[in-house]
């Protein structure tokens, strides 16, 4: 089960912890369920409005993520990830520190999601 800690500098007193057990729900859906105000627009990995910073917590080995092409494209366009960082993540199966909340489905790990 994943423990997700949501945090925002605008809502410092409202750090929220949410557990995701289904492995099918996106971070955006979990945020909506828990009334966490992550900004979003398209909900489909196209606009980049929902970009969040993801930090692995705890001492489990970080899990790599398969990023869909449209998420890679948006993260590159936003300048959140460089081409060489992207190649390094793909070659070494590393997680991305930036994700689109509408595309990110957390797995069995604990993460901090900053929005
Ligand atoms: Fe548009 Fe996530 S809401 S990319």
Automatic annotation (TrEMBL):
InterPro entries: 2Fe-2S_ferredoxin-like_sf, 2Fe-2S_ferredoxin-type, 2Fe2S_fd_BS, Beta-grasp_dom_sf. Coiled coil: none annotated. Residues 2-115 form the 2Fe-2S ferredoxin-type domain. CDD domains: fer2. One of its GO terms (molecular function) is 2 iron, 2 sulfur cluster binding. This is Ferredoxin. It comes from Thiothrix caldifontis.
């Amino acid at each position: 089960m994943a423990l997700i800690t949501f945090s925002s500098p605008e809502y410092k007193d409202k750090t929220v912890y949410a557990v995701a057990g289904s492995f099918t729900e996106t971070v955006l859906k979990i945020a909506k369920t828990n009334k966490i105000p992550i900004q979003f627009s398209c909900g489909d990995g196209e606009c980049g409005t929902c970009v969040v910073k993801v930090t692995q917590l705890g001492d489990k080995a970080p899990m790599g993520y398969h990023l869909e092409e449209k998420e890679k494209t948006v993260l590159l366009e936003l300048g959140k990830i460089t081409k060489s960082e992207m190649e390094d993540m793909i070659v070494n199966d590393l997680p991305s520190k930036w994700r689109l909340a509408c595309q990110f489905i957390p797995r069995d790990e604990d993460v901090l999601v900053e929005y």
